[in-house]
Design goal:
By secondary structure, the protein is of the alpha+beta class. It has one domain: L-amino peptidase D-ALA esterase/amidase (4-Layer Sandwich). Strands 1, 2, 3, 4, 5, 8, 11, 12, 15 and 16 form a ten-stranded mixed beta sheet that branches. A hairpin with a 6-residue loop joins β6 and β7.
Length: 333
């Protein structure tokens, strides 16, 4: 893949990949919500679990050696295990549309909806949290899914925190030679910090394109002049208060229209852990539940050798880094 021109997609959102719509819904009182990727066509999928404390559903099904190749949507939610119940609602809604895996000699279809959740319940009156809340939010997000959506304090990013800062929903995309598209969406709720300590500079700011993070480096570069790395600095991470906190997760989806099989997608998802590492410090900890999904509509043919797969994975990783930065930047505005 000889890259000639790489620019942000038309919307600079994951929905620049044809066939993806995104729906968001929130509960303002409980400061939680969910985000649904509505897939209008078949998408191949795999996933890589990077953190040590994930809340998820159907992840094992996406491993390269498993039989099922295609999925019908992805649910990203707040609410930890309660939020996973949104998946059941999406299954029912898609079943009514006859979407899903076709069972031979039967009228039954089995919608495949992988799910991942963040924990956003601390410090709230969470006694009223229950699965029904997320099933109701799922109905709304399913109906309002479209190509355009805002970033930051929206959907599953409503109650997210990135270290001590407000986290949120982020997304970004690239167009490669006006032919291929790669997009990312992420919910940033990390133990680690997205900022270089005491500088105002986002780690992801070094990958900013077209001022999408408010010109982060240019706005704060003078603060970097006196920066000295400190191994002991935990001031803007959740480690500063609670060494046992397990209320952290960054859940992400990488999407493309390049034709890739499940093993290819798994390798790309695994490569994209570097996209997390470039945007958040620390990341992938035993106290995070980080998951990266990788999906493809398989519409654009490309010779997938080791070189091209590495190029795709590298570009996808950069796009995820940008999505994280955009999510945090939008949340704190």
């Amino acid at each position: 893949m000889d890259k000639k021109k790489i620019i942000p997609g038309d919307r600079n959102l994951i929905s620049d990949v044809d066939g993806i719509l995104v729906g968001n819904a929130e509960d303002d009182q409980l400061q939680t919500g969910l985000t649904y990727l509505k897939l209008e066509k078949k998408f191949s999928a795999s996933a890589y679990v990077f953190g040590g404390a994930s809340a998820s559903r159907e992840i094992d099904l996406l491993q390269p050696e498993r039989t099922i190749r295609y999925i019908d949507g992805i649910s990203l939610s707040g609410g930890s295990v309660f939020g996973l119940s949104a998946g059941s609602e999406y299954v029912d809604l898609l079943s009514e549309e006859n979407r899903g895996f076709k069972i031979k000699d039967s009228t039954i279809t089995i919608p495949i909806i992988p799910c991942a959740s963040i924990y956003d319940l601390s410090g709230k009156d969470n006694k009223s949290i229950n699965s029904e809340i997320y099933r109701n939010l799922a109905k709304f997000s399913f109906k309002n899914a479209n190509k355009n959506f805002i970033l930051g304090n929206i959907g599953a990013g409503m109650g997210a925190k990135a270290g001590i800062y407000k986290g949120g929903l982020g997304s970004a995309s690239i167009s490669i030679d006006n032919k291929y598209t790669i997009g990312a969406i992420t919910i940033v709720n990390s133990l680690g910090s997205p900022f270089i300590a005491d500088t105002g500079i986002l780690y992801s700011g070094f990958y900013e394109m077209n001022g999408e993070m408010g010109g982060n480096i240019n706005s704060n570069y003078k603060n970097f002049a006196e920066y000295i790395f400190n191994y002991e600095s935990k001031n803007d991470t959740k480690l500063r208060n609670d060494l046992t906190s397990k209320e952290n997760t960054t859940i992400s989806v990488i999407a493309t229209d390049i034709d890739l099989n499940k093993l290819d997608l798994y390798k790309i998802a695994k490569m994209c852990t570097s996209g997390l590492s470039r945007a958040i410090k620390p990341i992938g900890t035993p106290m995070d539940g980080d998951i990266i999904f990788a999906i493809s509509s398989n519409e654009k043919r490309l010779n997938i050798d080791d070189y091209n797969l590495t190029q795709i994975g590298s570009l996808a990783s950069d796009t995820l880094t940008r999505a994280i930065g955009r999510g945090v930047f939008s949340a704190i505005q």
